[in-house]
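Batch job 17 of 40 flagged for manual review because the log was empty.
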Amino acid sequence: MNAITSQLGSQLSLVSLNGARRPAPPPLVLVAHGSRDPRALSTVRTLIERVRELRPHLSVHLGHIELNEPLLADTLASLDAGGAADGAVLVPLLLSRGYHVKRDIPEAAAAVPGLRARIAAPLGPHPLLVETLYARLVEAGWRTGMSDAARRAGGVVLAAAGSRDPESITDTRRTAQ
């Protein structure tokens, strides 16, 4: 019954109130960095499956900048081959602006002839990421009821690897603050 309800809801979302068919939403491409750590790929796949559950009418794809497959260039080429590339939305699963967001992702999109892609902002900095970092600290044993003196005596290091881009550094500092 849930599958039928979900499918019907997905079908109805493509029909406007006057009965005309709405255009299908553009494909969504989640752009991950890629990692040698297999947990990273598992996390990204879990995220994609969750997006697909929440938006069953949406075509959701994955592309990696490096280190894992599918590579972004291959994902974008497959969209173009299937005729679904018009208006694709690329969402960088990155925590700040930097070289990948400013150069690698736009260049990959520009390399596909006829691809009209829109590139979203990266995930960070964003208050929800700060809330998540705080929750992880508490899970790891960070005491929340400390006095001001105890809190000042302790410390948390927020490190970001790999970018000399001034905007990336600004984003990391903003998240740290």
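Reviewer: the log was empty due to a logging misconfiguration, but the result itself is present. Helices lie at 2-12, 38-54, 72-81, 99-110, 127-139, 148-153, 166-176. Unflagging and moving on to job 18.
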